Amino acid sequence: MRPAGTFTLLMRKRTAVTMAPFASLQVPVSFAPLSIEEKRATVSVRASYKRTSLNWVFPLRGVVNAPPYPKAFPFRCKAKTSARKVVELPLRNLAGLSGPETFTHELICPPSMEGLISKSLSINPVEPTITDPNQPVRFQVVFEPLRPFSTSATLVIVRGTGGRWPFEIQLDAVEPDPDDNIVIEANLRTTSSVAFRLTNRYPAYAPFQAFFSTDSAMTLQVHPSTGLLGPEGTQGTVFTVQFSPVEYGKLQRGRLVIQTEDIQWSYEVTGTHPHVLVPQNVESRVESRLETHVASQLGKHRQINAVKRNMTATALQAGRERLLDGGGAQPSP
What we know:
By secondary structure, the chain is mostly beta strands.
């Protein structure tokens, strides 16, 4: 086996082993490269059977992985917008470069995010051919997310003659701007609704979830909350937003979110009460002034002497008549 120092046979050479029929032999080999370039070697296994020489040759190809680059390349933008950047990727410890060489790339994603990343991230070569080991390769990265998410992926630069350089890419898609504003007007203790249609951006049905964010008013509701979103080119799925106010006060607001596995739509919803117009330039028809003879009597009190009134002859005669009518003549003392 050759070359020495890169591949090492972990068993003594010319070791005699007796094997049973249909048995297998394990030949341990270690690979310890000193530079990032393709390494090749062969392992020969020789045997003798009934005075016949047998020889098995196994070619070895060593692919070297460089250590991860210590710095991640961040890409951050709002969903439904884009971030574009040309990144320069240095190929550290590159060896064996005798002339122009072109490098390709691979993208390694988490399995759960592979579909979402494939639809939002594209990588195109700008300068993939270099002639100097100290020259970086250049690729354009375009990040166009359709819904919020955060994850990382590994961009691997691949050398045709052996060698792989991994670079981490950090992807952050934040909440997008609202797609539209919806205003619903309703009287107190009544329900008003607004309906609209929505279709998928792709020619296929897609499961969806519809909900209001946690900081939205409880008087706002959406129907349906789950289902299948109609494909592109159809009439789509009908969504109904309801507003049911129970008290007067500040405006009732909420953020409606409709999302599939690939896309998210958001709407700012405002619930209001019917507008009341205050009359302008209207004279009062209420008479606020008292009549003169009534106003002149206010505050005046007549002083009556009840003792003097009861001592008059008329009052005394009336008292005697009441006594006679009620109990007859009184006995003499």
